[in-house]
Amino acid sequence: MNNLPSILPFIQELTKQVGDRLLADFEQARVAIAKDDGSLVTKSDRWADAYIKAALEKKFPEYGVLTEESTQVLPDREWAWVVDPLDGTTNFARGIPIWGISLGLLHHGTPVFGYVAIPPLRQNIYGWSDEHGSAAFFNDTPIHLPETSPDPDALSNYFFSACSRSLEKMGRSKFPFKLRMLGVASYNILTVAIGSTIGAVEATPKIWDIAAVWVILKAIGAIWIPLEDCQNIFPLEMGKDYSSRSFPTLVVSHTELLLMAQEITKPFIP
């Protein structure tokens, strides 16, 4: 595929269809059950998973599809979609209006296109990055990182986003920032892209949480640091089961913030 932006209208319409249905479900009673890994799943997750998977396979029959709720082995294909049909299921099940739909497109195991829709907030964040160029957008408006790094003497006026498991791993109860916990791995990281935070850390994101957001952050030049073994996440391995593989991740907006953020997250590193 030589023109990644050309797939945008289809993905926008697909996520709108799924988002409208999920919003309707969100207004009704929601019953969640625990999966083997302890995370929650609802009928809405499984409906969205099946709907998105079928739509992608029909539109892109030569592409593989990896999804959270059904196919978790990366297909041995040149192109493959990675889908989180409902990121933030616990929020969704508990009536908290922050949850989303995430789709990432891989080429030879590396993300080149990502789209994250947050229906309750009416936010759509997407981007692409390959040899032909890169760009990222927030509700169709181009996004860029600020040219200058935040004032180190005024960090208490900035936000840093984390998940609850991150705090446990880091053994921290106090941060030099105003802390926000959103409960949605993809959106947690994307707050750096849209300028809400200057950094974010996730302790246990799965590949469907990060495939789409990785390429968006790359497109705007943010700093992405794998925390598990300091090796590159991508390309992924064809034929590998990613159901239990986590990718501890640190993201910061500017290089000047990296040393301080790495010091905070030191307990992650073996």
Give an account of the 3D structure.
By secondary structure, the protein is α+β, with helices and mostly antiparallel strands. The chain has two domains: 139 residues, Fructose-1,6-Bisphosphatase, Chain A, domain 1 (2-Layer Sandwich), CATH 3.30.540.10; 117 residues, D-Maltodextrin-Binding Protein, domain 2 (3-Layer(aba) Sandwich). 29% of the residues lie in helices and 26% in strands. It has seven helices and 14 strands. A seven-stranded mixed sheet has the order 3-4-5-6-7-8-9, sandwiched between helices. A hairpin with a 2-residue loop joins strand 7 and strand 8. The radius of gyration is 18 Å and the shape is globular. The mean pLDDT is 90.
Task: Compose a concise summary of this entry.
One of its GO terms (molecular function) is metal ion binding. By secondary structure, the chain is of the alpha+beta class.
Tell me the layout of helices and strands:
Elements lengths: L7 H19 L5 E3 L5 E3 H17 L4 E4 L11 E9 L1 H6 L5 E8 L2 E9 L4 E8 L2 E6 L2 E2 L16 E4 L1 H7 L7 E3 L4 H9 L5 E4 L4 H14 L2 E4 L22 E4 L5 H7 L6
Parallel strand pairs: 3-4, 10-11, 10-12
Antiparallel strand pairs: 1-2, 4-5, 5-6, 6-7, 7-8, 8-9, 12-14, 13-14
Helix pairs in contact: 1-2, 5-6
Output the radius of gyration: 18 Å
Residue-averaged pLDDT, rounded?
90
Outline type = globular
What's the β-strand tally?
14
State the helicity in percent bands: 25-40%
CATH H-level homologous superfamily name of the largest domain: Fructose-1,6-Bisphosphatase, subunit A, domain 1
What characterizes the major β-sheet? 7 strands, mixed
Kindly identify the CATH topology of the largest domain.
Fructose-1,6-Bisphosphatase, Chain A, domain 1
End-to-end gap: 39 Å
- Structural category is alpha+beta
The residue ranges in which pLDDT falls below 50 over 5 or more consecutive positions are none
Question: N-to-C SSE series?
Answer: HEEHEEHEEEEEEHEHEHEEH
Please write the CATH class name of the largest domain.
Answer: Alpha Beta
How many individual helices?
7
Question: Structurally, how many domains make up the residues?
Answer: 2
Examine the secondary-structure arrangement and name the CATH architecture of the largest domain. Answer: 2-Layer Sandwich
Strand order of the largest sheet: 3-4-5-6-7-8-9
Percent of residues in beta strands? 25-35%
